[in-house]
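Progress narrative, work stream C.
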Amino acid sequence: MQINLRKANAIQAEIRKAISGVGSKDTISVNEFTTSIVDTLEKATEEFATSVTRKVALNTALFNIRKSIAQANATAGISDILADVELIDANMAVYSNVATKEVAKSFDELRARVEKMKAAPADARSSIYGDRYSNVDTSVVERGTIDAAKQIVKELKREKQTLQDKLLTLNVNTTITVSQVDEMVLKMEGIV
């Protein structure tokens, strides 16, 4: 059976749900009203074995599909594109952080504030405001750097969208083969 990568990802999610939905009851309770302890025990043992077999078959199908997807991703260049998208996300985080910084005060403003502090009587300043007002704090990020970071973020967003469009096309057009055994398991479970 041939399926595209997009469908394969959806099938993987369904397999995981099916695996978690398979119950594996490994104990039973019998009492004086149990009509046949042997039959009850045999039935529970059979159900337990069936659930283990189902889980193993689903796990095998899941990981066979996963390996096929990995091979197809590498062959089609999807793995490289995914790495490029992650790099873009990391760089967008850096530049977005820069783009939201406060603009540095001008040299003239800094000098004027320092001169004003020097001119004020030292004892009046520290007694009223404490030492925290004997400094002038400023960002070191200039307006040009902030504007450039904003522009870079816009460019990175466009580049990411282009790559995501390419990924969508590749995920729809790239196919993998599901073995007959795995296909049979998926059909028995109602997944395909």
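Work stream C, second folded protein:
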Amino acid sequence: HANYCPKFSRSVYMMRDGRDVMVSYYFHGLRHVAEGPNPKLTRRQRRMYPGLRDKNDFAVNFVPFLQRQLTEPNASHGLNWRQHVMSALGQQNESTVILRFEDLLTHPQQALVDAMEQLTGQPAEKDQIAYTVRRYSFVNQSKRKPGTESRSAFLRKGVAGDWKNVFTREAAELFH
């Protein structure tokens, strides 16, 4: 979540489809909102979810949330998703590895091998990477299969492309 910092001699920038970022962040913040009509919200929650009256009313709540995150984001030190990604890509050099979240889901071992080799200039320890992938997999951390949703959990769903299930035409146009 930190912004790119040129002071780092070597770094990895994790990039994820911004539409999935918005859906993930939306549900992440709602984990701490009480159920029922007109929940008591903190100042931060009121800022994140303008006009929220029922946390389960996604159709009403998501577009105002998205609008706020695109114009007045409260994460990534005030940069919206596009600004955050462009700041990192604009500063990209040989000591910065771009790692796509989606690649970690589809080919985790190869994505980490490639990132480590690019970052260090040395052959990756493939056994250690395989162990790390197993240990920190969604299944091992959540005790659920990817795609099995738990809105109260820190690890909600463990998939890429979930935005396709929840974005309305209005949300898609707004994000675009």
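The first strand starts at residue 11 and ends at 15. No further action is required on this item.
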